[in-house]
Each structure stands twice: as structure tokens, then as C-alpha cells.
Design brief:
It is a single chain. This protein is mainly α and about 140 residues long. The protein has one domain. Helices cover about 90% and strands about 0% of the residues. It starts with a helix and ends with a helix.
Length: about 140
């Protein structure tokens, strides 16, 4: 009986050691699972951050897409505004040029050019006022 008791005790001890080993393995598995969960949470956080960056970049690019048409619209407005001024100024400028050409033609037809050119040779100062006949 002593041998049987010793064998039972030995089996009980071995069984207890196996239970301790199984318990330790279970605790190690739980620790590894917790580490994996923490790593997955960190990876998810990084992924969310990258998605936010990509979303922000996408929104920025969408804004850039709006800038070009706005600039083109403003440039078109400026051309219209310039056209408005051009429509007002052009007839006046053309009238001024026509008047100057008419005066030049009269000046040459009268033969006054020869007088003024000889005066210039005689060291007289030739000015527009002299040509127009203003003292």
C-alpha cells in the first residue's frame, strides 16, 4: 500500500505540475493576446491617422480644383472691365490721332515744313508751340 500511495502521490504531483504548466501556458497565451490586441489598436490608430491625412489632402486638392475656375472667372471679369474702358477711350484716342494727322497734313501742305527745317539749321529751337504757331 505504501507503494500505491507513493505512486498516487507521484501521479498527483505530476498531474499538479501539468496543471501548473497548462495554467502558465494559458496565462502566457492571455498575455500574448493582450499584446496582440494592443498592437492591433496601435495599428488601427496609425491607420486612422493616415486616413485623416489622406482625407485632408483630398479636401485640399478639391479646394485647388475650385481655385482655378475662380481665377479664370476673375480674369474674365477683368477683361470685360478693360473692354468697358477700351470702348470709352478708343473713340477719343482715335479722334485725337485724326486731329493730329489733319494738323500734320495742313502743316506739310502749307509748306511750313521748309521754314521750320531751315530755322532748325539756323540753331533755332524747334518746339511744338512753334510748329502750331503759338508764341
Amino acid at each position: 500500500m505504501k507503494k500505491q500511495s507513493l505512486m498516487l502521490m507521484e501521479q498527483s504531483r505530476k498531474s499538479s505540475e501539468r496543471e501548473k504548466a497548462a495554467l502558465q501556458q494559458a496565462q502566457d497565451a492571455i498575455t500574448e493576446k493582450d499584446a496582440a490586441v494592443a498592437e492591433a489598436a496601435a495599428a488601427t490608430s496609425r491607420e486612422n491617422f493616415m486616413l485623416e491625412l489622406l482625407t485632408d489632402a483630398s479636401l485640399d486638392m478639391a479646394d485647388v480644383g475650385q481655385i482655378v475656375p475662380k481665377c479664370l472667372a476673375k480674369m474674365a471679369k477683368r477683361k470685360k472691365n478693360f473692354g468697358k474702358y477700351d470702348d470709352v477711350v478708343t473713340p477719343v484716342a482715335e479722334d485725337m490721332m485724326d486731329e493730329l494727322l489733319r494738323m500734320d497734313a495742313e502743316f506739310f501742305v502749307k509748306g511750313s515744313y521748309a521754314e521750320h527745317s531751315t530755322r532748325a539749321v539756323n540753331n533755332e529751337r524747334l518746339t511744338i508751340d512753334n510748329i502750331l504757331g503759338n508764341p
